[in-house]
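for the writeup, i need someone to sanity check this before i put it in the appendix. the sequnce is what the collaborator sent (i think, or maybe the updated version? ugh). structure was predicted straight from it, no edits. if anything looks off just tell me and ill rerun, i have time this weekend
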Amino acid sequence: MNARWLSLNFFAYFFTWGIFLPYWTGWLTSVKGLSVFEASLVMGAGMIARALSTLFLFPAAAHRLPLTKLMRISILLSLLIGLFYIPAHSLEALFAVTLAFNLVYPNLLPAMESGASVLIQSERINYGRSRAFGSLGYTVALLVIGGLNAWFGNSAILWTMFAGLAVFYVAQLAGPPAVLSARAAESGEGRRGNAFRQLLGMRGFVTVLGISILLQSAHASYYNYGFIYLEDLGVASFAIGVILNVAVIAEIVFFAQADKWFGSMKSSNMFLIAAAGSTARWLLIALVPAVWMFTLTQVLHAVSFGIAHYAFIRYISEKLPRGLLASAQGLYAALGMSLSTAFLTLLGGALYGVSPNLSFLGMAMCTIPAGLLVLATRKRFSY
């Protein structure tokens, strides 16, 4: 029953993420009239706000509120803030709304992953199978947006986001696990500051976190400019949705079989595979700027993102006590999914202005060092 709840909520959350992540920059440029550089500034600032929020606000809120209540409040606040996008048209107004939205909405990701880690420890649920439903929600969102954009234009992106958040709230009410309805403080979590000190004092965790940051931030150009890149290549809106879905289908297949294929593999070996696959992905896109190559390399998303993410979740679920999971997820979301990605989004935007190919080539400057770091530390920290 709890695995079903987790699968349903992963689907609902990643449906909204499948709207926000690949389409928001394009929506700002096409509907709100921002230039690519202006949209990059807005999204980059939003990622910095996301990083600060998931680093400080999320662990503090998770300490005081049950995860289920925290998610419900975050969904409702995201809907409320999102309404202010409707009257916002100036760069300043869009900047302010995006900052506010990114202070709340992205916290749902570490909340979902923290809940999954707790259920892995308490019930040994099959994480990969439940997470595959999240990838399915993402791919459904891409198809829905692709179809709606073809009929109604890019203005449909915002309204579909509202609908997705509403569905996510309903999914939260479908029999939430009792273990997630207790405050972290009641289940033994230390104070946020103490948890951070403990984590940062674990050299093995810091190393794994650093590797994860490098691998996840390398997706910055893909997430923020992949949609625009395909438009520049002359691909129609619906076809863009289909192409972006290739990555998510590969991700679904991976997560559905992850426990079977990688359940006994060391995290270090998974990180090495992820680094090699990610490097190959960005080099191929940069060196062969064609729709067919972009589509072909989408399969490598299961490696560049899927394996890297699975390796981190496996590591913290096996190595960390339950009381440190929320703080570990906060650090991962803040540094790996937000702050470093924000920096590379700005860099990728500047490079995109010179040449779209350079924007993707620049991402390899993270993946190659990640692989070298694994080789240098895997024996020392036994991960």
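The first helix runs from residue 2 to 30. Confidence is low (pLDDT under 50) at residues 186-190.
thx in advance!!
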